[in-house]
Here is the input.
Amino acid sequence: MSGSKTYADYLELHTLLSLQGNDSELSNDEQHFMIVHQVFELWFRLVIIELKAARSLLLQPVLPEDDVPRIVHHLNRCIEIFRLMTSQWKVMETLTPQDFLAFREGLGTASGFESYQMRELELMLGLKQSQRVQEMDPLAHFRKLAERGGRDAEVLKILEAEEQMPTMGEILSKWLSRTPIQGSLAHDENDEEIVSEFVNSYLSEHKRIGERAVERMAENGVKNMDAVRERFESAHAAANDFLIPDGKISRARAGLLFIESYRELPLLTWPRILIDTFVELEQSLVLFRTHHVRMVERIIGRRVGTGGSSGVDYLDATLKYRVFSDLWTVRTLLIKKESLPGLINSEFYGFAGKEN
Ligand code: HEM
Here is the structure.
Protein backbone atom coordinates (compact mmCIF):
# COMPACT_ATOMS: atom_id res chain seq x y z
CA MET A 1 0.00 0.00 0.00
CA SER A 2 1.53 3.31 -1.05
CA GLY A 3 0.35 5.07 2.16
CA SER A 4 2.56 2.89 4.29
CA LYS A 5 5.66 3.37 2.19
CA THR A 6 8.64 4.66 4.09
CA TYR A 7 11.30 7.02 2.81
CA ALA A 8 13.61 4.02 2.36
CA ASP A 9 10.95 2.04 0.49
CA TYR A 10 10.24 4.91 -1.87
CA LEU A 11 13.91 5.42 -2.69
CA GLU A 12 14.74 1.71 -2.73
CA LEU A 13 17.39 2.72 -0.30
CA HIS A 14 18.04 -0.75 1.04
CA THR A 15 18.94 -1.95 -2.45
CA LEU A 16 20.84 1.21 -3.31
CA LEU A 17 22.96 1.06 -0.17
CA SER A 18 23.78 -2.59 -0.61
CA LEU A 19 25.70 -1.85 -3.80
CA GLN A 20 28.91 -0.37 -2.44
CA GLY A 21 30.70 -3.60 -1.74
CA ASN A 22 29.72 -3.40 1.93
CA ASP A 23 30.02 -7.12 2.52
CA SER A 24 33.36 -7.51 0.82
CA GLU A 25 36.70 -6.58 2.19
CA LEU A 26 36.95 -3.26 0.40
CA SER A 27 39.22 -0.71 2.01
CA ASN A 28 37.87 2.68 2.98
CA ASP A 29 39.64 4.17 -0.06
CA GLU A 30 38.19 1.66 -2.47
CA GLN A 31 34.68 2.20 -1.11
CA HIS A 32 35.23 5.90 -1.66
CA PHE A 33 36.36 5.18 -5.24
CA MET A 34 33.30 3.06 -5.90
CA ILE A 35 30.79 5.45 -4.36
CA VAL A 36 32.17 8.44 -6.27
CA HIS A 37 31.83 6.50 -9.53
CA GLN A 38 28.31 5.39 -8.69
CA VAL A 39 27.26 8.94 -7.91
CA PHE A 40 28.53 10.06 -11.33
CA GLU A 41 26.65 7.24 -13.02
CA LEU A 42 23.44 8.29 -11.25
CA TRP A 43 23.89 11.81 -12.55
CA PHE A 44 24.54 10.45 -16.05
CA ARG A 45 21.24 8.62 -15.75
CA LEU A 46 19.41 11.85 -15.08
CA VAL A 47 21.22 13.67 -17.90
CA ILE A 48 20.04 10.97 -20.32
CA ILE A 49 16.45 11.28 -19.07
CA GLU A 50 16.55 15.06 -19.54
CA LEU A 51 18.16 14.84 -22.98
CA LYS A 52 15.51 12.37 -24.10
CA ALA A 53 12.77 14.74 -22.94
CA ALA A 54 14.41 17.65 -24.78
CA ARG A 55 14.92 15.56 -27.89
CA SER A 56 11.31 14.40 -28.14
CA LEU A 57 10.17 18.03 -28.00
CA LEU A 58 12.73 19.10 -30.58
CA LEU A 59 11.76 16.27 -32.91
CA GLN A 60 8.30 17.72 -33.56
CA PRO A 61 7.97 18.66 -37.23
CA VAL A 62 6.70 22.07 -36.15
CA LEU A 63 8.06 23.25 -32.83
CA PRO A 64 5.36 25.14 -30.89
CA GLU A 65 6.81 28.35 -29.44
CA ASP A 66 5.95 27.44 -25.87
CA ASP A 67 7.94 24.22 -26.14
CA VAL A 68 11.21 26.11 -26.62
CA PRO A 69 11.34 27.21 -22.94
CA ARG A 70 10.59 23.58 -22.00
CA ILE A 71 13.57 22.35 -24.00
CA VAL A 72 15.74 25.04 -22.42
CA HIS A 73 14.54 23.89 -19.01
CA HIS A 74 15.62 20.28 -19.63
CA LEU A 75 18.98 21.37 -21.02
CA ASN A 76 19.57 23.73 -18.11
CA ARG A 77 19.14 20.84 -15.73
CA CYS A 78 21.83 18.91 -17.65
CA ILE A 79 24.12 21.94 -17.48
CA GLU A 80 23.72 22.21 -13.71
CA ILE A 81 24.42 18.49 -13.33
CA PHE A 82 27.60 18.78 -15.39
CA ARG A 83 28.63 21.82 -13.37
CA LEU A 84 28.08 19.87 -10.17
CA MET A 85 29.94 16.84 -11.50
CA THR A 86 32.83 19.08 -12.55
CA SER A 87 33.32 20.10 -8.94
CA GLN A 88 32.86 16.55 -7.70
CA TRP A 89 36.29 15.54 -8.97
CA LYS A 90 37.63 17.24 -5.86
CA VAL A 91 36.16 14.43 -3.76
CA MET A 92 37.95 11.88 -5.96
CA GLU A 93 41.19 13.83 -5.53
CA THR A 94 41.25 13.10 -1.82
CA LEU A 95 42.56 9.73 -3.00
CA THR A 96 46.36 9.96 -3.06
CA PRO A 97 48.45 8.24 -5.76
CA GLN A 98 49.61 5.66 -3.23
CA ASP A 99 46.07 5.08 -1.92
CA PHE A 100 44.98 4.30 -5.47
CA LEU A 101 47.90 2.02 -6.25
CA ALA A 102 46.90 -0.08 -3.24
CA PHE A 103 43.82 -1.40 -5.07
CA ARG A 104 44.30 -0.33 -8.74
CA GLU A 105 45.46 -3.77 -9.96
CA GLY A 106 42.22 -5.26 -8.73
CA LEU A 107 40.32 -3.18 -11.30
CA GLY A 108 41.84 -5.24 -14.09
CA THR A 109 40.92 -3.65 -17.41
CA ALA A 110 37.76 -1.99 -16.07
CA SER A 111 37.83 1.68 -17.01
CA GLY A 112 35.63 4.77 -17.37
CA PHE A 113 36.07 4.13 -21.08
CA GLU A 114 33.39 1.47 -20.56
CA SER A 115 30.90 3.89 -19.02
CA TYR A 116 28.05 3.04 -21.35
CA GLN A 117 25.88 5.84 -20.05
CA MET A 118 28.56 8.37 -20.98
CA ARG A 119 28.62 6.78 -24.46
CA GLU A 120 24.84 6.91 -24.66
CA LEU A 121 24.73 10.60 -23.90
CA GLU A 122 27.58 11.33 -26.31
CA LEU A 123 25.69 9.48 -29.03
CA MET A 124 22.50 11.38 -28.23
CA LEU A 125 24.31 14.67 -28.58
CA GLY A 126 25.91 13.49 -31.82
CA LEU A 127 29.55 12.64 -31.22
CA LYS A 128 30.64 10.45 -34.14
CA GLN A 129 33.51 7.99 -34.28
CA SER A 130 35.05 10.08 -37.08
CA GLN A 131 35.44 12.93 -34.56
CA ARG A 132 37.04 10.75 -31.89
CA VAL A 133 40.63 9.76 -31.33
CA GLN A 134 40.75 7.11 -34.06
CA GLU A 135 42.16 4.14 -32.22
CA MET A 136 39.71 4.64 -29.35
CA ASP A 137 36.40 3.29 -30.62
CA PRO A 138 33.96 2.69 -27.77
CA LEU A 139 31.27 1.13 -29.97
CA ALA A 140 33.76 -1.41 -31.35
CA HIS A 141 34.75 -2.18 -27.77
CA PHE A 142 31.12 -2.71 -26.73
CA ARG A 143 30.58 -4.93 -29.78
CA LYS A 144 33.40 -7.13 -28.59
CA LEU A 145 32.07 -7.20 -25.03
CA ALA A 146 28.60 -8.08 -26.36
CA GLU A 147 29.92 -11.40 -27.64
CA ARG A 148 29.75 -12.49 -24.02
CA GLY A 149 25.94 -12.06 -24.17
CA GLY A 150 23.82 -11.08 -21.14
CA ARG A 151 24.05 -7.52 -19.88
CA ASP A 152 26.85 -6.64 -22.28
CA ALA A 153 24.66 -7.59 -25.24
CA GLU A 154 21.83 -5.46 -23.81
CA VAL A 155 24.17 -2.50 -23.51
CA LEU A 156 25.16 -2.82 -27.15
CA LYS A 157 21.49 -2.88 -28.18
CA ILE A 158 20.87 0.38 -26.33
CA LEU A 159 23.89 2.04 -27.91
CA GLU A 160 23.13 0.80 -31.41
CA ALA A 161 19.51 1.96 -31.12
CA GLU A 162 20.80 5.36 -30.03
CA GLU A 163 23.16 5.44 -32.98
CA GLN A 164 20.15 5.13 -35.31
CA MET A 165 18.34 8.12 -33.81
CA PRO A 166 18.80 11.60 -35.23
CA THR A 167 21.30 13.40 -33.01
CA MET A 168 20.61 16.63 -31.14
CA GLY A 169 23.05 18.36 -33.48
CA GLU A 170 21.12 17.16 -36.55
CA ILE A 171 17.71 18.02 -35.10
CA LEU A 172 18.95 21.45 -34.11
CA SER A 173 20.30 22.05 -37.59
CA LYS A 174 16.93 21.10 -39.13
CA TRP A 175 15.19 23.52 -36.82
CA LEU A 176 17.69 26.27 -37.66
CA SER A 177 17.09 25.77 -41.36
CA ARG A 178 13.50 26.96 -40.76
CA THR A 179 14.64 30.30 -39.27
CA PRO A 180 12.99 33.28 -40.93
CA ILE A 181 15.81 35.28 -42.55
CA GLN A 182 15.15 38.93 -43.33
CA GLY A 183 11.49 38.05 -42.76
CA SER A 184 11.59 35.31 -45.38
CA LEU A 185 10.43 31.78 -44.57
CA ALA A 186 12.12 28.71 -45.99
CA HIS A 187 9.25 27.95 -48.35
CA ASP A 188 8.58 31.50 -49.50
CA GLU A 189 8.85 32.12 -53.19
CA ASN A 190 11.80 34.52 -53.03
CA ASP A 191 13.49 32.86 -50.11
CA GLU A 192 16.56 31.68 -51.99
CA GLU A 193 17.17 35.14 -53.39
CA ILE A 194 16.71 36.89 -50.03
CA VAL A 195 18.94 34.45 -48.18
CA SER A 196 21.59 34.64 -50.85
CA GLU A 197 21.54 38.46 -50.73
CA PHE A 198 21.92 38.34 -46.94
CA VAL A 199 24.78 35.83 -47.01
CA ASN A 200 26.66 37.50 -49.85
CA SER A 201 26.47 41.00 -48.43
CA TYR A 202 27.52 39.60 -45.05
CA LEU A 203 30.51 37.88 -46.62
CA SER A 204 31.64 40.93 -48.55
CA GLU A 205 31.52 42.98 -45.34
CA HIS A 206 33.43 40.20 -43.58
CA LYS A 207 36.09 40.41 -46.28
CA ARG A 208 36.31 44.21 -46.06
CA ILE A 209 36.72 44.07 -42.28
CA GLY A 210 39.59 41.59 -42.68
CA GLU A 211 41.29 43.75 -45.29
CA ARG A 212 40.99 46.83 -43.09
CA ALA A 213 42.48 44.92 -40.16
CA VAL A 214 45.43 43.89 -42.33
CA GLU A 215 45.99 47.52 -43.40
CA ARG A 216 45.89 48.73 -39.80
CA MET A 217 48.37 46.11 -38.70
CA ALA A 218 50.73 47.00 -41.52
CA GLU A 219 50.50 50.69 -40.57
CA ASN A 220 51.27 49.80 -36.97
CA GLY A 221 54.41 47.98 -38.01
CA VAL A 222 53.27 44.44 -37.22
CA LYS A 223 55.97 42.02 -38.40
CA ASN A 224 55.47 39.06 -40.65
CA MET A 225 52.70 40.69 -42.63
CA ASP A 226 52.61 37.93 -45.24
CA ALA A 227 51.64 35.42 -42.60
CA VAL A 228 49.11 37.83 -41.10
CA ARG A 229 47.51 38.50 -44.49
CA GLU A 230 47.31 34.78 -45.13
CA ARG A 231 45.62 34.26 -41.78
CA PHE A 232 42.90 36.80 -42.56
CA GLU A 233 42.43 35.38 -46.06
CA SER A 234 42.06 31.87 -44.80
CA ALA A 235 39.63 33.09 -42.10
CA HIS A 236 37.53 34.61 -44.86
CA ALA A 237 37.76 31.46 -46.98
CA ALA A 238 36.63 29.47 -43.94
CA ALA A 239 33.65 31.82 -43.43
CA ASN A 240 32.77 31.32 -47.07
CA ASP A 241 33.00 27.53 -46.84
CA PHE A 242 30.95 27.55 -43.67
CA LEU A 243 28.05 29.51 -45.16
CA ILE A 244 28.31 28.14 -48.68
CA PRO A 245 29.60 24.57 -48.33
CA ASP A 246 30.02 22.81 -51.68
CA GLY A 247 28.88 25.91 -53.49
CA LYS A 248 25.36 25.89 -52.02
CA ILE A 249 24.18 28.14 -49.20
CA SER A 250 23.43 26.26 -45.99
CA ARG A 251 20.10 27.68 -44.84
CA ALA A 252 20.65 26.26 -41.34
CA ARG A 253 23.95 28.11 -40.96
CA ALA A 254 22.55 31.26 -42.52
CA GLY A 255 19.67 31.02 -40.01
CA LEU A 256 22.12 30.57 -37.16
CA LEU A 257 24.13 33.54 -38.35
CA PHE A 258 20.96 35.60 -38.60
CA ILE A 259 19.90 34.74 -35.05
CA GLU A 260 23.37 35.49 -33.65
CA SER A 261 23.58 38.76 -35.59
CA TYR A 262 20.16 40.17 -34.74
CA ARG A 263 19.90 38.80 -31.24
CA GLU A 264 17.80 41.66 -29.91
CA LEU A 265 14.79 41.02 -32.16
CA PRO A 266 11.85 39.96 -29.96
CA LEU A 267 10.86 37.00 -32.15
CA LEU A 268 14.41 35.66 -31.95
CA THR A 269 14.66 35.84 -28.16
CA TRP A 270 13.86 32.20 -27.46
CA PRO A 271 15.76 30.79 -30.45
CA ARG A 272 18.80 32.74 -29.24
CA ILE A 273 18.34 31.44 -25.68
CA LEU A 274 18.04 27.89 -27.02
CA ILE A 275 21.27 28.25 -28.98
CA ASP A 276 23.06 29.79 -25.99
CA THR A 277 21.85 26.88 -23.88
CA PHE A 278 23.26 24.32 -26.31
CA VAL A 279 26.58 26.17 -26.30
CA GLU A 280 26.58 26.19 -22.52
CA LEU A 281 25.70 22.50 -22.42
CA GLU A 282 28.67 21.64 -24.59
CA GLN A 283 30.91 24.00 -22.63
CA SER A 284 29.87 22.29 -19.40
CA LEU A 285 30.69 18.89 -20.93
CA VAL A 286 34.12 20.13 -22.07
CA LEU A 287 34.81 21.48 -18.57
CA PHE A 288 33.71 18.18 -17.09
CA ARG A 289 36.24 16.37 -19.30
CA THR A 290 38.90 18.97 -18.53
CA HIS A 291 38.60 18.58 -14.77
CA HIS A 292 38.50 14.79 -15.06
CA VAL A 293 41.82 14.68 -16.89
CA ARG A 294 43.51 17.12 -14.51
CA MET A 295 42.33 14.95 -11.62
CA VAL A 296 43.64 11.85 -13.43
CA GLU A 297 47.03 13.51 -14.00
CA ARG A 298 47.26 14.29 -10.32
CA ILE A 299 46.48 10.74 -9.24
CA ILE A 300 48.18 8.53 -11.87
CA GLY A 301 50.56 10.89 -13.63
CA ARG A 302 51.15 9.87 -17.23
CA ARG A 303 50.91 6.12 -16.83
CA VAL A 304 48.86 3.83 -19.09
CA GLY A 305 45.14 3.73 -18.20
CA THR A 306 43.47 0.58 -16.86
CA GLY A 307 41.59 0.53 -20.18
CA GLY A 308 44.92 0.46 -22.03
CA SER A 309 44.87 3.99 -23.43
CA SER A 310 47.78 6.39 -23.19
CA GLY A 311 45.92 7.86 -20.18
CA VAL A 312 46.32 11.61 -19.78
CA ASP A 313 47.50 12.12 -23.38
CA TYR A 314 44.39 10.38 -24.68
CA LEU A 315 42.08 12.27 -22.34
CA ASP A 316 43.69 15.58 -23.30
CA ALA A 317 42.97 14.79 -26.94
CA THR A 318 39.26 14.31 -26.13
CA LEU A 319 39.06 17.95 -25.00
CA LYS A 320 38.92 18.93 -28.67
CA TYR A 321 35.62 17.12 -29.23
CA ARG A 322 32.80 19.46 -30.24
CA VAL A 323 29.38 18.22 -31.14
CA PHE A 324 27.65 21.51 -31.88
CA SER A 325 30.49 22.64 -34.08
CA ASP A 326 28.37 25.08 -36.11
CA LEU A 327 27.40 26.93 -32.94
CA TRP A 328 31.08 27.36 -32.14
CA THR A 329 32.23 28.17 -35.66
CA VAL A 330 29.69 30.93 -36.17
CA ARG A 331 31.31 32.86 -33.31
CA THR A 332 34.49 33.13 -35.34
CA LEU A 333 32.82 34.96 -38.18
CA LEU A 334 30.52 37.39 -36.38
CA ILE A 335 30.93 41.06 -37.24
CA LYS A 336 29.98 44.14 -35.21
CA LYS A 337 26.41 45.40 -35.37
CA GLU A 338 27.11 48.52 -37.42
CA SER A 339 28.63 46.42 -40.20
CA LEU A 340 25.69 44.01 -40.52
CA PRO A 341 23.55 43.97 -43.66
CA GLY A 342 20.57 46.28 -43.11
CA LEU A 343 17.62 44.52 -41.52
CA ILE A 344 14.57 44.26 -43.72
CA ASN A 345 11.06 43.26 -42.67
CA SER A 346 11.87 44.18 -39.07
CA GLU A 347 8.15 44.23 -38.20
CA PHE A 348 8.09 40.46 -38.92
CA TYR A 349 10.22 39.98 -35.80
CA GLY A 350 7.96 42.13 -33.63
CA PHE A 351 10.52 44.91 -33.70
CA ALA A 352 9.23 48.47 -33.76
CA GLY A 353 12.67 50.02 -34.33
CA LYS A 354 13.78 51.60 -37.57
CA GLU A 355 15.17 49.67 -40.51
CA ASN A 356 18.55 50.75 -41.72
C1 HEM B 1 41.16 7.77 -9.54
C2 HEM B 1 40.16 8.13 -10.35
C3 HEM B 1 40.19 8.02 -11.83
C4 HEM B 1 41.24 7.79 -12.67
C5 HEM B 1 42.72 7.61 -12.33
C6 HEM B 1 40.71 7.76 -14.02
C7 HEM B 1 41.48 7.53 -15.15
C8 HEM B 1 40.98 7.43 -16.42
C9 HEM B 1 41.76 7.11 -17.60
C10 HEM B 1 43.26 6.87 -17.61
C11 HEM B 1 40.92 7.06 -18.66
C12 HEM B 1 41.28 6.73 -20.12
C13 HEM B 1 40.84 5.35 -20.48
C14 HEM B 1 41.75 4.28 -19.92
O1 HEM B 1 42.78 3.97 -20.52
O2 HEM B 1 41.40 3.74 -18.85
C15 HEM B 1 39.59 7.39 -18.16
C16 HEM B 1 38.47 7.49 -18.94
C17 HEM B 1 37.24 7.84 -18.45
N1 HEM B 1 36.89 8.06 -17.14
FE1 HEM B 1 38.14 8.11 -15.58
N2 HEM B 1 39.38 8.00 -13.96
C18 HEM B 1 39.00 8.15 -12.66
C19 HEM B 1 37.75 8.40 -12.16
C20 HEM B 1 36.63 8.53 -12.94
C21 HEM B 1 35.30 8.75 -12.43
C22 HEM B 1 34.91 8.93 -10.96
C23 HEM B 1 34.47 8.79 -13.51
C24 HEM B 1 33.00 9.01 -13.43
C25 HEM B 1 32.16 8.25 -14.06
C26 HEM B 1 35.28 8.62 -14.69
C27 HEM B 1 34.81 8.59 -15.96
C28 HEM B 1 35.56 8.35 -17.09
C29 HEM B 1 35.02 8.35 -18.44
C30 HEM B 1 33.58 8.64 -18.84
C31 HEM B 1 36.07 8.03 -19.28
C32 HEM B 1 36.02 7.92 -20.81
C33 HEM B 1 36.58 9.17 -21.43
C34 HEM B 1 36.56 9.12 -22.95
O3 HEM B 1 36.91 8.07 -23.52
O4 HEM B 1 36.16 10.12 -23.56
N3 HEM B 1 36.59 8.47 -14.31
N4 HEM B 1 39.67 7.60 -16.82
